Amino acid sequence: MFPVKRTLIIACLTLLLGGCGYNNLTAGDEQVKASWAEVINQYQRRADLIPNLVKTVEAFAKQERDVLVTVTEARAKVGSIQATPEMVNDPQALQQFQAAQGELSGALRRLLVTVERYPELKSDANFRDLQAQLEGTENRITVARNRFIDDVRAYNTLARSFPTNITAMVFGFEVKPSFTVENEAEISKPPEVSFGSDT
């Protein structure tokens, strides 16, 4: 008789735990981490393109040293921040990461505006290829960041909703900070460069 009671208790506990949202919270947490990894992957892709872009521009526009130095320094600052999965749980670290990425985006925009003064650079095949790759990467960054924001929103909604909020509190599933930037609309726009001839 005792094994029957024990089996019945285990079955009831399993049913209760199944309906408490623990599995959904775990799945949401893992989805946020996966989305964050994709954001980091796309930002790394952009960082990897920058040295070649700077070299190409430098060959044509040596007098634009200040702009090139700004891009290089912004890339170095981004590289100095250790982006880890745990960062999604640390609002201050996430904000620092976002600020560095925003600084790099601004430096790249200034570089691309500078390029407009050099028609021979705009017609260079290497530059056009790098520019196309950079624009594509900026678009992928925007998509990855938007997915991350959506996944954080879904997770936070689950973690705050009853009855899963009780499970979240008991098992330590905390609300995650969202990816926000003061001028997010501006930052999320890919750089615009016209390759038309100057008149």
Note down, in words, how this protein is organized:
The protein has helices at residues 2-18, 22-60, 65-80, 91-115, 119-122, 125-160, 164-171, 184-187. The chain is 75% helix and 0% strand. It contains 8 helices and no strands. Helix 2 (22-60) runs antiparallel to helix 3 (65-80), helix 2 runs antiparallel to helix 6 (125-160) and helix 3 runs antiparallel to helix 4 (91-115). With 199 residues, the chain is mainly α. It has one domain: Up-down Bundle (de novo design (two linked rop proteins)).
Keywords, separated by commas or semicolons:
disordered C terminus, mainly alpha, 199 residues, de novo design (two linked rop proteins)
Short summary:
With 199 residues, the protein is an all-alpha fold. The protein has helices spanning 2-18, 22-60, 65-80, 91-115, 119-122, 125-160, 164-171, 184-187.
